[in-house]
Specification:
With 282 residues, the protein is of the alpha/beta class. The protein folds into 2 domains: 99 residues, Rossmann fold (3-Layer(aba) Sandwich); 171 residues, NAD(P)-binding Rossmann-like Domain (Rossmann fold). The chain contains 8 helices and 11 strands. A 6-stranded parallel sheet has the order 8-7-6-9-10-11, with helices on one face. Helix 1 links the parallel strand 1 and strand 2. The longest helix has 16 residues. About 9% of the residues have low confidence.
């Protein structure tokens, strides 16, 4: 940053314990830090952050996913560190001042999100979502054939931290893994074969499970459209842990045999319409 330490102020919105605050103070190396996070949020799935009005004029760095409009009210802000991997809402014009740094928490969620996707895959393959719903109604009807992932092919669209972690889990149960990324020459752990996005159509017909963990960009918008969804096997599963606009929600998914996960709660920035074999993973 371009300001002396005694003129800087970090506003930390994380819901920290006292020992964790001490760690952040040591890491800041003398830069003043205000902790405004609510520790009561620690057990919640979503944390809420706001910059107190009396700190907006002096904040030079913010840790937390504050509302974008709060950033524009901090005239000295030089650095925003989010606790999410996605930062698209902070890249809109007028949110951050020119020259400000924007960093994210990419790499922090690979294990937790991939394990959630893994659990969703098993639930769909074993019809657990149907049995759980039926059990509440004392309905013990057979939900149909269950499948095993052993010997199947998993296609990872996005092979970053989440995609790579998911691929390793899939390989552990006997699945072949194919990764799709912008630069196929860059290897990722857990991926047997890597291809570029230009080869996506050739890989889709072979995939039994498709995991998606891509950001919201012009190149990923409706990446899975009607034409590409039509290339899938009838029983293929799509697990989307990325942005919802990577899948066209208006596209028909599947035919007579449709399976839909229940208990999935799409966020506002994700696809509202969940049809066919698409499971939105939170």
């Amino acid at each position: 940053m371009g300001i002396e330490n005694n003129h800087k102020l970090i506003v930390n919105c994380l819901p920290l314990t006292e020992p964790e605050k001490a760690q952040f103070m040591r890491a800041a190396k003398g830069v003043p830090q205000e902790f405004v996070g609510d520790p009561a949020q620690r057990g919640n799935m979503n944390w809420h952050a706001r910059i107190p009005e009396d700190l907006r004029a002096s904040a030079t760095a913010i840790i937390g996913n504050v509302p974008p409009e709060d950033c524009s009210k901090c005239p000295r802000l030089e650095w925003l560190q989010t606790w999410s991997a996605g930062v698209d809402k902070y890249q809109r014009p007028g949110v951050l001042q020119p020259g400000s740094m924007l960093t994210n928490a990419s790499g922090a969620y690979g294990q937790s999100v991939s394990e959630h996707m893994f659990a969703m895959m098993w639930a769909l393959m074993k019809n657990l979502h149907i049995y759980a719903k039926n059990q509440a109604n004392a309905n013990w009807t057979d939900a149909g054939r269950a499948s095993s992932p052993s010997g199947m092919t998993a296609l990872m669209i996005g092979t970053g931290d989440i995609g790579s972690h998911f691929a390793k889990l899939c390989k552990g149960i006997g699945m072949e893994t194919i990764g799709v990324r912008r630069n196929p020459s860059v290897e990722a752990e857990g991926i047997d074969h890597t291809i570029g996005f230009e080869s996506l159509e050739q890989a889709l017909p072979y995939a039994d499970v498709i995991s998606m963990s891509v950001p919201s960009t012009p190149t990923t918008y409706h990446l899975l459209n009607a034409e590409r969804l039509a290339l899938l096997k009838p029983e293929a599963l799509i697990l989307n842990a990325g942005r919802g606009d990577a899948i066209d929600p208006r596209s028909p998914c599947g035919g007579a045999r449709r399976r839909q996960a229940t208990g999935c709660r799409p966020r506002r920035d994700r696809a509202r319409t969940i049809a066919g074999r698409i499971a939105i993973v939170e």
